[in-house]
Amino acid sequence: MPAQDTPFVADYLAALLAQASQLISAEFHQVVRAHGVSVPEWRVLASLAGSGEMSIGGLAQLSVTKQPTLTRMLDRIAAKGYVERVSHDTDRRVTLVRITEKGERTVADLIRLAKEHEQRVLEPFGLARAEALKSTLRGMIALRREAGAAPAAADEQEAC
């Protein structure tokens, strides 16, 4: 329990998560941009990598991107050959997106570098604590989604 004179945001979970995300992400985003990929493109490609097909709504939630912004971005990265839209098997109203082989090749090195960055960030805390933290965060995300919590817009929260 923090001391009474501890500032609110120094002990408030959402503020701590946002600060940690911003600091950690900012470090890696330099690497992303150095590889000629924009941060929003990285989020989308990383979300799609190894995932098969995904609805635009699901991709917007996972990549923490507003859906209209994502739709425009998909046009741009589809033109680069990184993703493709496909029709849903049974529901013509649903458009799915999948990463192409070119997109997988483009993001593969960045994923390796992201894993190395993550290891450097978590290493001081030890493997067990790092895995416990990630497990706790996955559980929090799942519970909040089940409770119907609205996902944050990309301009409200930096992620990945």
TrEMBL record:
Q: Which GO terms describe its biological process?
A: response to stress
Alphabetic keyword roster: DNA-binding, Transcription, Transcription regulation
Point out the signal peptide segment.
none
Q: Where is the HTH marR-type domain?
A: 10-142
Listed Gene3D superfamilies:
Winged helix-like DNA-binding domain superfamily/Winged helix DNA-binding domain (1.10.10.10)
Q: Which GO terms describe its molecular function?
A: DNA binding; DNA-binding transcription factor activity
Check the record and name the InterPro entries matching this protein: HTH_MarR-typ (IPR000835), MarR/SlyA-like (IPR039422), WH-like_DNA-bd_sf (IPR036388), WH_DNA-bd_sf (IPR036390)
Q: What is this protein called?
A: MarR family transcriptional regulator
Which organism is this entry from? Verticiella sediminum
